[in-house]
Every structure is written in structure tokens, then in C-alpha cells.
């Protein structure tokens, strides 16, 4: 499938407002997400990755600049239409209450089902397909609270898949996962991007795993500038070595991960 730019930031400054005061954490970002690709968002804790994700998702307004989705300013897209365009999976542990896995995934159909939320036969088929895509068919009737962290994360991703958006944003989706679940999650995201032609943006600290699946990287640098490029180009340019500048680590081009300078 042809890769198309679905989302672009133009001179985007993301941050917070406190009264009349502005607190930018990322300045003048010019970034692109394309269909059929996994883009990984890397940077230090507190660099502004989650703030950037929330701004792109339309959950907080930019301080300056704009976000364009398929050529339209994010600020001009109605909320209901935006929910059919961008889905998000956040890092917080999910408090599921009494919902089953299937009921949780079906929440992804809310932008389409109207006020009463009744699922049509077509909606139910989409939920079934989302469970198949994420490999959790056998868990449909289990309560979300009974699942392991890895299974629960798959259910959250399945809910985003059921939302049928061309753009998916994920904030640290592997934070609470063991090694096997982490690798399965990254492989799942890679397959979703390729097989469903989605633009997927993943914020992560799992550098080696990110380098294995990412077609594209967004890096939030120590000076709060955000840059982008292919992994190969950013490695060649030395950007990976500058990502944690001032820390006693370096980027190992053989391992495709960071190592202590003493190693």
C-alpha cells in the first residue's frame, strides 16, 4: 500500500498555560506521520513526550503552531469526527469495573453508535475482527480485571482497533509488561500498521524494541526541539548520541540500544 502523510505538525509548540503565562516543553516541531508505518517517539523522562501526544490527540491546545490531519487543522475537526480519525491508548493501568473484554472493546464503537450505544451487526463484526487481530478471541467473556497486564494491554489496543481510526497513538504501551508481552505488543503494532495501513505513533523507553519495528523516529532532544527521520539517518547524524546528552551513556550501533560509557 502507498504510504501517505496523514498527520503533520507545523511550527508546533506544545506545553501548558497557567493564566497568561505559557510553559512550552516542545518548541517549533515539524513532524509527520505516514500510513503503513510505526513511528516511535523517544526521549528522556519529562522531555514532553506525553504532552506532545496529548496535543496531537486534540486533548490540549497547542501554545503555537498547528496540527494538520489529512490537510485539515485539528482545531477545525468536530470532536465526533476526530474520534473516527485518531484513537489513543494511554499508559495508566485500566480500572475496568464489571466490564468484560468484549464490552471493553465495544466501547471503541461509540463514535459510530449514537446516543444509546447500541451495536449493529456490522459493529459486532468489527469488534470480532479487532479481537482476532489482537489474538484475544478466547478472552471475550472474561472480566478485564482478571487479565494479566499483557492481556489487558492487548484489550486496550483492540478497543483502539475497533475504533477504526487511520491514526493510532500509544503512550508507553509496554510499561507494565514482561519481556514476552512487550515483544508481542510491538509485533502486533507492526502488523497493524502494515496490514491495516495505519499510521501508528508509539511513545516508548524500550529503545531496542523500537528500533526493530520503527520505520520512522521522532526524537525529543534535551533542548526541547523535536526532530524526525529514519532510524538509519538519525544514527548516522549522531542524533541518537545527543538524545541523552550529558548522561553517562552512549548509543551502541551494533546493539541498537544505549549502553553505559564504561561498557
Give the topology.
Blueprint: E1 5-18, E2 21-29, E3 32-34, E4 37-42, H1 49-56, E5 64-69, E6 72-73, H2 79-83, E7 86-89, H3 101-106, H4 110-113, H5 121-134, H6 149-162, E8 167-171, H7 179-196, E9 199-203, H8 207-213, E10 216-220, E11 226-229, H9 231-236, H10 239-242, E12 249-252, E13 257-260
Helix pairs in contact: 5-6
Q: What does it look like?
A:
It is built from ten helices and 13 strands. With 263 residues, the protein is an alpha/beta fold. It has a six-stranded mixed sheet with strand order 7-8-9-4-10-11, sandwiched between helices. The model has no long low-confidence stretch (mean pLDDT 92).
What integer is the average pLDDT? 92
Computed structural class: alpha/beta
Distance between the termini: 42 Å
- Helical percentage: 25-40%
Secondary-structure element string = EEEEHEEHEHHHHEHEHEEHHEE
How many helical stretches? 10
Number of strands: 13
How do the strands of the widest beta sheet line up side by side? Answer: 7-8-9-4-10-11
**Largest sheet composition:** 6 strands, mixed
Low-confidence stretches: none
Percent of residues in β-strands: 25-35%
Radius of gyration: 19 Å
Shape, principal axes of CA atoms: globular
Amino acid at each position: 500500500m502507498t504510504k501517505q502523510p496523514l498527520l503533520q505538525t507545523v511550527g508546533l509548540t506544545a506545553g501548558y498555560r497557567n493564566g497568561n503565562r505559557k510553559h512550552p516543553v516542545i518548541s517549533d516541531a515539524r513532524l509527520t506521520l505516514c500510513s503503513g508505518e510505526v513511528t516511535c517517539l523517544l526521549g528522556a523522562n519529562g522531555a514532553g513526550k506525553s504532552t506532545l501526544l496529548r496535543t496531537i490527540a486534540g486533548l490540549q491546545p497547542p501554545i503555537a503552531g498547528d496540527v494538520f490531519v489529512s490537510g485539515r487543522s485539528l482545531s477545525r475537526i468536530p470532536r465526533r469526527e476526530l474520534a473516527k480519525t485518531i484513537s489513543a491508548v494511554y499508559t495508566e493501568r485500566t480500572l475496568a469495573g464489571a466490564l468484560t473484554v468484549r464490552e471493553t472493546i465495544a466501547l471503541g464503537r461509540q463514535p459510530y453508535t449514537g446516543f444509546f450505544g447500541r451495536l449493529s451487526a456490522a459493529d459486532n463484526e468489527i469488534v470480532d475482527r479487532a479481537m482476532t487481530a489482537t489474538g484475544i478471541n478466547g478472552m471475550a467473556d472474561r472480566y478485564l480485571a482478571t487479565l494479566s497486564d499483557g492481556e489487558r494491554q492487548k484489550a486496550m489496543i483492540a478497543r483502539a482497533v475497533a475504533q477504526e481510526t487511520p491514526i493510532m497513538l500509544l503512550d508507553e504501551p509496554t510499561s507494565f509488561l514482561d519481556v514476552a508481552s512487550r515483544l508481542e505488543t510491538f509485533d502486533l503494532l507492526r502488523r497493524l500498521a502494515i496490514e491495516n495501513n495505519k499510521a501508528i505513533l508509539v511513545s516508548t523507553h524500550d529503545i531496542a524494541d523500537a528500533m526493530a519495528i520503527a520505520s520512522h523516529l521522532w526524537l525529543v532532544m534535551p533542548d526541547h526541539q523535536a526532530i524526525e527521520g529514519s532510524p538509519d539517518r538519525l544514527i548516522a547524524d549522531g542524533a541518537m548520541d545527543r538524545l541523552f546528552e550529558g548522561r553517562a551513556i552512549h548509543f551502541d550501533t551494533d546493539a541498537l540500544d544505549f549502553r553505559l560509557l564504561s561498557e
